[in-house]
Amino acid sequence: MKILVYGAGVLGSIHAVRLYEAGVDVTVVARASRLASIRENGVLIAEGDHGATRSVAVPVTDNPSGHWDLILVFVRTHQVDAVLHSLAGQRGDVLLLVNWAAGPAPLGNVVGHNRVLLGFPTQGGVMDGDVVRYRPETRLTRLAMPIGEPDGRTTQRLERIVEMFRSANFAVAIEPRMDAWLRTHAAFEVPLGLAVHAAGGPEALAQDRPRLRSMVHELKRSLAAMPNATVPRPFGILSVLPAAILVPVFRLFLRSSAAGPLRTDSAAVSEELECLAEQLRSSVLAHSARLER
Ligand SMILES: NC(=O)c1ccc[n+]([C@@H]2O[C@H](COP(=O)([O-])OP(=O)(O)OC[C@H]3O[C@@H](n4cnc5c(N)ncnc54)[C@H](OP(=O)(O)O)[C@@H]3O)[C@@H](O)[C@H]2O)c1
What we know:
By secondary structure, the chain is an alpha/beta fold.
């Protein structure tokens, strides 16, 4: 399969490197200083804060036109529209691996409904200058990356994609309710991300008891307001468990290495959270309007 990875930030780089090293025909799209850096040095990548930096010569381009079997999109939520428009006139399936709570319809409207698949990356990491520092995998963080067709079917193309990721040793799972999965995740991510941002980082939020309590209440409210059942179902437990249990659990999480990616505090992260919050609000309003009809 000929693969284009759109977005050479943290997740695009991690996936491009591992697919390339597994022998997959992969090219990454980058722009501006990131394009110059990869052209000059390859993709620089290291495990965690202290791992040795390796340079991997993944092919890079600033021009996504060409023939691709599959285009993997790893950009921030608010950056998706521009990417889709640049892919509209091309061929190749498009797998969106992004925080996304607006469903498949707005994607299909631009690139064609039969081209779209949805997923969510479960790897994590941060940019440290030009170096991508990926989160070391532990049994706790080795979660399977969910991928699915918008209508929930298990198709041959989906099976081929899963096989490709597995060839690069990614844990992947076919998810028949991918849209609900993404909305559930957004209902969790938005209150958490906004509170981390307002507190000045995960450790600061862990220390700020009132703010942490109010984040937990907001998170429970956000999950309870969801138009669909939570997917995976255990997320629903968060909306019923008492704050007295959730506050210490979140405190532990915020102090752990698993919260590392939450330390990134850039304009792109804030814009992504705003856009995701807006997508969630719209989906709740659309659901209420459907109920009233
Ligand atoms: N990082 C994590 O640990 C993590 C974990 C789970 C899920 N996620 C989610 O995964 C998605 C991707 O996250 P990420 O951390 O990889 O983001 P990121 O590091 O900000 O990378 C996005 C990359 O896409 C590039 N890009 C955006 N629009 C482009 C365009 N039109 N043409 C070319 N390049 C373009 C950006 O370039 P510019 O810098 O020039 O804008 C940036 O290099 C997000 O939805 C995020 O929430 C992230």
